[in-house]
Amino acid sequence: MAVAALGSATRVKVAPWNDPVIRGWVFQIVVVGLVAALAWYLVSNTIDNLNRQKIASGFDYLGREAGFEIGDTMIAYSPASTYARAIWVGILNTLRVAVLGIILSTILGTLLGVGRLSPNWLLNKICAWYVEAFRNVPLLLWLFLFYKLISEAFPGPRQAISALWNSVFLSNRGLYFPVPMADPIHKWMGVALLVGIAGAVVLYRWAKKRQEATGQPFPSISSGFGVAIGLPLLVWLAAGAPSAMSWPELKGFNFEGGTVIQPEFTALLVGLVLYTSAFIAEIVRSGILALHKGQSEAAAALGLSRGQSMRLVLLPQALRVIVPPMTSQYLNITKNSSLAIAIGYPDLVASINVTINQTGQAIENILLIMAAYLSVSLSISAFMNWYNKRIALTER
Q1: Spatial distance between the Cα atoms of 290 and 323, rounded to a whole number of angstroms
Q2: In the chain, where the domains are located
Q3: How far apart are CA 109 and CA 115, in angstroms?
Q4: Predicted confidence band of residue 95 (pLDDT cuts 50, 70, 90)
């Protein structure tokens, strides 16, 4: 009986302040309460100061007339447009640079990373020097350099360099070239392009499954490219092939008509691509080196060339190592685009900077910048996490 009594589990009552579970909950509630109190104090103090200085607050100003020009826009905009539209123009300009920068830096960085592993001594050293040069100099200095080179290396509009029977002009104001005039069919051509891209993806997946099942390759890349380009072309032909063009012409001190790639945009894009591709090159190189050398030996034993081994064997496996750090570089491109204000490119930061100077409502505008960059960054992270899970090895 005594042994049974000693062996039976008896719960000893503990005082609430000595219970680790209760104590943990109390500490968390206290910390959350302190943070909430601090936030309430900061917000209320800010509102009181704004009211005392008679500074307007809220987002009502977004519906007022902006009154300032934006030199590079993707959508219709004029000084009579609202502040909300001006900010939207800045967001679109930022997204344009970010998307093009991600695509181009990925291509260039992959080529540089593969080049650093080349047995060719000269190619290896050129890629290594490139990587070291761009990684060890701040991006802002590269932007200043490229902007000065582009803006001062070319003549003014009256002495512009012309090409293609005086239809393309290059000057320190940018590259002017003809574009088709606006037509309702262009909207449907855009829809056809999206459908063609979706069809190319479906075709690629089908070709991949077919090759895995039968071993017979299918030219999915060239066929997919043909589908993506062919559908918009068919829509254009079906609409009567409208060919009215807007041509650039020198009027006064600048060109009118056509479209222009401005030096600020070029300098920013070139700087972001060249700078970020140096980091991506090291990511690609380390991802390939992480593979066992038996993979390349097995590919060589199958009779694959070095290019085929890299494209079909090594890079697909290295993606599992490359994708996670590559996400950080994509985020860096998006955030580093805010340096555009230093060379005069009208991105989101530049648009909101002018808005702050005119309205005096800095808090609201800074919150808009933070929300915009946070939304874009989270979207990129979500897509890359989805892609990382898709290519991850699945255990049986």
Answers
A1: 13
A2: 2-52, 83-181+244-391, 183-238
A3: 10
A4: very high
Determine the average pLDDT of the residues in 163-187.
85
CA neighbours closer than 13 Å in the CB half-sphere of residue 188: 12
Q: In the 3-class helix/strand/coil scheme, how is 198-234 assigned residue by residue?
A: HHHHHHHHHHHHHHHHHCCCCCHHHHHHHHHHHHHHH
- Please name which of 87, 56, 126, 146 lies closest in space to residue 353, comparing C-alpha atoms: 87
Strand 249-251 relative to strand 254-256, pairing:
antiparallel
Per CATH, domain 83-181+244-391 is 1.10.3720.10: yes
Q: Which of 336, 236, 225 is nearest to 277 (CA)?
A: 336
- Is the confidence at residue 306, as pLDDT, over 80? no
Is the distance from CB of 362 to CB of 356 less than 8 angstroms?
yes
CA 319 to chain centre: 19
- Kindly tell me the burial class for residue 386, based on how many C-beta atoms sit within 10 Å of its own C-beta (0-12, 13-18, 19 or more): exposed
Closest CA to 94 of 111, 74, 113: 74
Distance (Å, rounded) from C-alpha 170 to C-alpha 160? 5
Q: Which of 324, 314, 328 lies closest to 285 in space, CA to CA?
A: 314
Q: Report the C-alpha gap between 154 and 287 in whole angstroms.
A: 41
* 8 A C-beta contact, residue 200 and residue 290: no
Beta bridge partners of 245: 180
Whole-structure pTM value:
0.81
Structure tokens at 309: 């081994």
Q: How far apart are CA 264 and CA 213, in angstroms?
A: 51
- Residue 183: half-sphere exposure toward Cβ, Cα within 13 Å: 18
Model confidence band, residue 301 (pLDDT cutoffs 50, 70, 90): confident
Does the pLDDT of residue 208 top 90, yes or no? no
DSSP annotation of 5:
H
pLDDT in the model for residue 12: 60
Pairwise CA distance, residues 122 & 113, whole Å: 14
pLDDT band at 26 (very low <50, low <70, confident <90, very high): confident
